[in-house]
TrEMBL record:
<keyword id="KW-0963">Cytoplasm</keyword>
<dbReference type="GO" id="GO:0001758">
    <property type="term" value="F:retinal dehydrogenase (NAD+) activity"/>
</dbReference>
<dbReference type="InterPro" id="IPR015590">
    <property type="entry name" value="Aldehyde_DH_dom"/>
</dbReference>
<dbReference type="InterPro" id="IPR016161">
    <property type="entry name" value="Ald_DH/histidinol_DH"/>
</dbReference>
<dbReference type="InterPro" id="IPR029510">
    <property type="entry name" value="Ald_DH_CS_GLU"/>
</dbReference>
<feature type="domain" description="Aldehyde dehydrogenase">
    <location>
        <begin position="24"/>
        <end position="484"/>
    </location>
</feature>
<comment type="function">
    <text>Catalyzes the NAD-dependent oxidation of 2-aminomuconic semialdehyde of the kynurenine metabolic pathway in L-tryptophan degradation.</text>
</comment>
<comment type="similarity">
    <text>Belongs to the aldehyde dehydrogenase family.</text>
</comment>
<keyword id="KW-0520">NAD</keyword>
<keyword id="KW-0560">Oxidoreductase</keyword>
<dbReference type="InterPro" id="IPR016163">
    <property type="entry name" value="Ald_DH_C"/>
</dbReference>
<comment type="pathway">
    <text>Amino-acid degradation; L-kynurenine degradation.</text>
</comment>
<dbReference type="Pfam" id="PF00171">
    <property type="entry name" value="Aldedh"/>
</dbReference>
<dbReference type="InterPro" id="IPR016160">
    <property type="entry name" value="Ald_DH_CS_CYS"/>
</dbReference>
<dbReference type="GO" id="GO:0047102">
    <property type="term" value="F:aminomuconate-semialdehyde dehydrogenase activity"/>
</dbReference>
<protein>
    <recommendedName>
        <fullName>2-aminomuconic semialdehyde dehydrogenase</fullName>
        <ecNumber>1.2.1.32</ecNumber>
    </recommendedName>
</protein>
<dbReference type="GO" id="GO:0042573">
    <property type="term" value="P:retinoic acid metabolic process"/>
</dbReference>
Length: 488
């Protein structure tokens, strides 16, 4: 009804420094209540065309600014987001289903830091120079921004991952057209309101909202967008690669994972257990770096399992805006069904579900009965070939299995199509180095998880991606290099 629709939050595209309404809209749900609360533009070719045009028009001026000028603008934007941190955190929690605590302590602080980090790192790059004395020549490299960057981000860490792309892209002097996930568009829209105040010239950052198949593909296929940075699923990345192939675009693809934790008999369980609970269930298990295969050496297997399950049961599921809640709502009804179906499949195959889905009962507050909630779930005695051990589930579900030798566990850990991240737990220094070297993963954390230095490369091997992002890697991705030879 009209009365009802008046209460909805209605987003608009941000093109050429102005908010622009769209001719059609998509419903966006509050995952913790199941209600439609927001309408997101359903952009297509026309909107993307307008956004690319304004990004192209802004490029000559933005790219000719000095790194220091761009750096100051990025820092100002970071300050403005930080000033509104609480409002951003509330919005992210409502839109995504994640807990307010996670949004306050992880998502929004990191979005702020992404701008500060690239505002700083852009000041410190140097290019190369070599000499060829016998030829009377020296060579040097110069780097220049590429043009209009197309940025596509997922729903699990909305502003965090979007700013991880926008910040390096514009720090390097590119202009951008970004498309956040249609399921989590609100914080990107809020950020648009701060761009002018931060001093970002019109057209440098354009955001078109909408679905992947409509707005996303229009961006991927646009001939004036020479580079695409994408974070999302491996399946979508395959489609993007195919669609962009005729244009020979430069692609950075950050994709899914099926990340192992390898826990040896000599692991310090007082550190390992709480960290592995976090690595399995943080953000409802909806982080590409989440652990979903836990290999425990035989000698500590039963003790680990007993303690791990006891602790998992303490994780409180409920209203995301309650600061004592550890697990919020999953992103959508469809996604919740998909995650649940994996637990059913495991049971059908003879695995044991030790806690969570189908085993314990979930008591939800009155207002959250229709939300997309699920208990942290631990599955044991599941075969390596099972889809639960091979496919990315992307929910609060983790599998625990036993192993005997180092050689064996390396082989089993590597026998999935993905290669994003891994954790290794042991107090034997030689062993952690040996195992880390042999794991097929872009990131290996030993005796910790998710400790990131943004200076160093981030990204996956195998089906987990192509390319890396980080201080130097993002700089290289978002610039074009040229080698110049001078004869003297
Ligand atoms: P998704 O692939 O469904 O969507 C990601 C984005 O791509 C969305 O904005 C979507 O609208 C868009 N999209 C979908 N189809 C498209 C198309 N044909 N053309 C252009 N754009 C299209 O992924 P998701 O479900 O939003 O996110 C979850 C996935 O992201 C998981 O697989 C997770 O592991 C992965 N992820 C990876 C990283 C990483 O850094 N490696 C980080 C977070 C999430």
């Amino acid at each position: 009804t009209m009365a009802h629709s008046k209460a909805l939050l209605v987003l608009e595209n941000f093109i050429g420094g102005k908010f622009v309404p769209c001719s059609s809209y998509i419903d966006s749900y509050n995952p913790s209540t199941g209600d439609v609360y927001c309408r997101v533009p359903d952009s297509g070719k026309e909107e993307v065309e307008a956004a690319v045009r304004s990004a192209k028009a802004a490029f000559p001026i933005w790219s000719s600014k000095s790194p220091l000028e761009r750096s100051q603008i990025l820092n100002k934007l970071a300050d403005l987001i930080e000033h509104d941190l609480e409002a951003f955190a509330q919005a992210e929690s409502k839109d995504q289903g994640k807990t307010i605590t996670f949004a306050r302590t992880v998502d929004i602080p990191r979005a702020v830091y992404n701008f500060r980090f690239f505002a700083s790192s852009i000041l410190h790059h140097t290019t190369e120079c070599t000499e060829m004395a016998t030829m009377g020549c020296m060579h040097y490299t110069s780097r220049a921004p590429v043009g209009v960057a197309g940025l596509i981000s997922p729903w699990n860490l909305p502003l965090y991952l979007l700013t991880w792309k926008i910040a390096p892209a514009i720090a390097c002097g590119n202009t951008v057209v970004a498309k956040p996930s249609e399921m989590t568009s609100v914080t990107a829209w809020m950020m648009c309101k701060l761009l002018e105040k931060a001093g970002v010239p019109h057209g440098v950052v354009n955001i078109v909202f909408g679905t992947g198949t409509k707005a996303g593909e229009a961006l991927i296929c646009h001939p004036d967008v020479p580079l695409i940075s994408f974070t999302g699923s491996t399946l979508t990345a395959q489609r993007i690669t195919e669609k962009s192939a005729p244009h020979c675009k430069r692609l950075s693809l950050e994709l899914g994972g099926k990340n192992p934790a390898i826990i040896f008999n000599d692991a310090d369980l007082t550190q390992c257990i709480p960290t592995t609970l976090r690595s399995s269930f943080a953000n409802q298990g909806e982080i590409c770096l989440c652990t979903s295969r836990i290999f425990v050496q035989r000698g500590i297997y039963s003790e680990f399992l007993k303690r791990f399950v006891a602790e998992a049961k303490k994780w409180k599921v409920g209203n995301p805006s309650d600061p004592t809640v550890n697990v919020g709502a999953l992103i959508s009804k469809e996604h919740l069904e998909k995650v649940r179906s994996y637990v059913k499949k495991a049971q059908a195959e003879g695995a044991r579900v030790l806690c969570g889905e189908g085993v314990d009962s979930l008591a939800l507050p009155t207002g959250n009965q229709k939300g997309y909630f699920m208990l942290p779930t631990v599955i044991a005695e599941v075969k390596d070939e099972s889809c639960c051990m091979q496919e990315e589930i992307f929910g609060p579900v983790t599998c625990v299995v036993a192993f005997d030798t180092e050689e064996e566990v390396i082989e089993r850990a590597n026998s999935v199509k993905y290669g994003l991240a891994a954790t290794v737990w042991s107090s034997n220094v030689g062993r952690v180095h040996r195992v880390a070297q042999r794991l097929q993963a872009g990131l290996v954390w030993t005796n910790c998880w998710l400790v990131r230095d943004l200076n160093l490369p981030f990204g996956g091997m195998k089906a987990s991606g192509i390319g890396r992002e980080g201080a130097k890697d993002s700089y290289e991705f978002f610039t074009e290099v040229k080698t110049i030879t001078i004869k003297h």
